[in-house]
Each structure stands twice: as structure tokens, then as C-alpha cells.
Amino acid sequence: MTSAPDATPPAEPARRRRRDPEAHRAAILDAAREAFAEHGYALATIRDIARRAGVTHGLVMRHFTSKEQLFLCAVPGTRDLDEIVAGDVASLPERVAAGFVARMETNAADDPFVTLIRSAASNERAAIDLYTAMRRRSVAAYRTVLDGDDVDVRVELMAAQLIGVAFNRYIVKAGPLAAMTAGELTAHLSRVLRGIMFG
Amino acid sequence: MTSAPDATPPAEPARRRRRDPEAHRAAILDAAREAFAEHGYALATIRDIARRAGVTHGLVMRHFTSKEQLFLCAVPGTRDLDEIVAGDVASLPERVAAGFVARMETNAADDPFVTLIRSAASNERAAIDLYTAMRRRSVAAYRTVLDGDDVDVRVELMAAQLIGVAFNRYIVKAGPLAAMTAGELTAHLSRVLRGIMFG
DNA sequence: ACAAATAATGACCAAGTGGTCATCAGGGAT
DNA sequence: ATCCCTGATGACCACTTGGTCATTATTTGT
Asked: Which parts of the sequence are annotated with region: Disordered (chains A, B) (predicted)?
């Protein structure tokens, strides 16, 4: 019976069992956002998430029932797009570019955009659904200020550009797009998005 | 008619052990290309590849030593880009768009482009390396016909556009970009690429 | 002070992974 | 025919995964 769980590693020998469901739940969600963005849905593991949150993987299951549920709870939809879109149409490309870069630059580490790109690779239903919902919402937002029957296509082409840029700069992190400054990126993106939107 | 021509009974009870290393090697490579494109590096499994190739997973290991080796052998670099690039610069965007769409449309199922996008999501060294090599080669090809100090950036922005489009149309397979015909896609892509390249 | 309620744990499970290896069998050379 | 090299197999290994559940420890109500 040497079932000693772990012979007191130097750090914390008497780690008292905390009892605080709300805090734990929040910690798990944060950890999940991080892990899912870092590895994508399929490759992120519940145990790793539990470790980051400082709890056991059993507790994660207790709170969220399944990996898919956790994913759905942790990864939010797109935020603040409406604010960016609102305004005069002429400068829309600049606002979109600036908004995108600002958002990604401050914390690409657990941005849903990155998460969904990484996750969609695995054909996981949950990820595809979230991605679809996100796209639908984007198109709807743009529709409030743009018109024309090919708005959808143009919005989609802009989204494609952003996906590609995100892929290179924030996922693969190599090449010219990853090397340039945020300002330069914004400038290039403004020009390209303008071309897509109004070209 | 009434007598069943039992050339191939539903299940093969006496599956004789074939001995044909070259054919098997080729079959494994084909199966690997397919599987890696379908699931990405991390999520593709050697056993599944073996199954598709009609051999045992032990044989796959025997031929390729490791999953990473198999990946490197199976996923080739970009082909035929030089031919597309060669020609008058004025119509480059159209040729690139048409070449891209033609290639993806005929067999996106095991295109290295899709494979690398799906694989890079998992931060796998082998995938990242292949992707980097592919990008380097692309830039080199374009450099033979274009000049200017921001060629690299423009090429990268075009690549980003193609990645985004590939992501929507051939990976997620949803939305306007997935719904339109190949011809329409080519037209849109021509316009957008032209804007990126010469805008 | 005690007991009921329940948050948290950790042992456990079946399934699946990449990788190893003793063994077997096909077929060319003799 | 026979031998023997080696292509091919499948049992096996250590490990990881998502998920379950009996136990244990901590609050809270009384």
C-alpha cells in the first residue's frame, strides 16, 4: 500500500481542499478558453484544462458534463463587431482593419477567432456550428450599413482575408505578415479590405 | 443472371497475404495523403491509413519508421506554381485565381494546401516546416516576375486570401464562398487578387 | 455540536494512440 | 523440392484520452 498520492513535492504539501464552485467554474472557463485557443478543440484535453485551473479533471466534468459542453460555454461569440461597423461607410475598411489588429494584438492567445480556426480543422461539429454562427452574425452586422446583392460575398471575402492573415501572423507566426508592426499591418489591411469591399 | 457471379463475395475470408512492397508503399502514401488532408497531421492515425491502404499498421511503421516520416514523405511541396506564374504580368491575378480554383476543384480531398492548413493548427513541427518551405518557394516564384521591395508582403497577402478562401470553401464548406460555382469564384478571386497585387 | 447537503477528489474504465517485435509465409534462387 | 531472405502480420506495450462514480472533506442550517 504505497498508495502515497505523491510524496509531498517541495511546493505545497498540505494543499487544502477549497470549496468554491463559482470561482472554480470561472477558473475552468478561463483555462478552457486558453487551452482551446492554443490547441484547438480536438487537441485540447480536459486534464490540461483542469491543471491550468488548479482543479481535478473530475471537477471539470462535474461542472460541464462533457468536453463539448465546456467548449460551447467557454468560447463566446464575436463581440463588439457592431460598434466597429457603425459609422460612415467610407472609412469602414480602416475601422475594420484597425479593430481587427487591435483586438488580435492585445490578446490573440485566447481569441475565439484563433480558437475557431484551430478547431475547424478537426471537423468537430461544435466548432463548425460556432463558426457558422459567428459568420452569420458578421454578415448581419455589415448588412446594416451596406447594401447590394453581393454584400454577402464581399463580406465573406473580407473574412477570408482576415482568416488568412490571422493564420500567418497569429497561428503559424512566421513570414512577412508576422514580422511587421501592428501599424504596418493595419495599413496593408486597410488597403486590401478597401479593394475587396469597394473594388 | 440467376446464378450469382460470386467473383467477390461480400467479405474476403481467405485474404491471401500479398507480397509487393512497391505497390504497398505507394498505396500507403496515397492513403496517407488522403488521411492527412482529411484530418490534419495530429488527428490522422496510422491505423486508419493502414486500413485505407489495405495493410496492417505494422507494415506502415516498417516502411516509414514513424508518423512524422510518413507525413514528410506523403505530403509533397507545391507543384506547378512556376508554370502559372510564368507569363505576362498584367494577367497574373487571373492566372493565379484560375490555377488555384482549378487545382482545388479537381481534388481538394488530398491537396497539400488543405493538409497544411489543417495540420498547422496543431503546432506540429513537421507541418510548420513544410508550410514554411511552401511559402518560401511561392515567394521565390513570384519574385521572378515581379519586383519592388514590398513584393513579399503582397505575395503573402495574396496567399492569405487563398488560405481564407480555401478554409471556407474546402474545409468548413459553408457560406457564400462554398455555394458559388467555380467560375464565379474565379472571377471574384481575380478581382481581389488584382487589388492586392497592383492596388 | 451535530448532521444533512454537496463540492471536490482520485481511482477506475474502455477505447484508442504511436511504436516494437517475435513470428509467419511468399516467392526467387538454387 | 528446398532453402532462405525478407515482406507482412498481429499480439503486445506504455501511455493518453473522455467519461463515471464511490469516497471524502467542507460548509451550512439547526
From this structure: 1-22
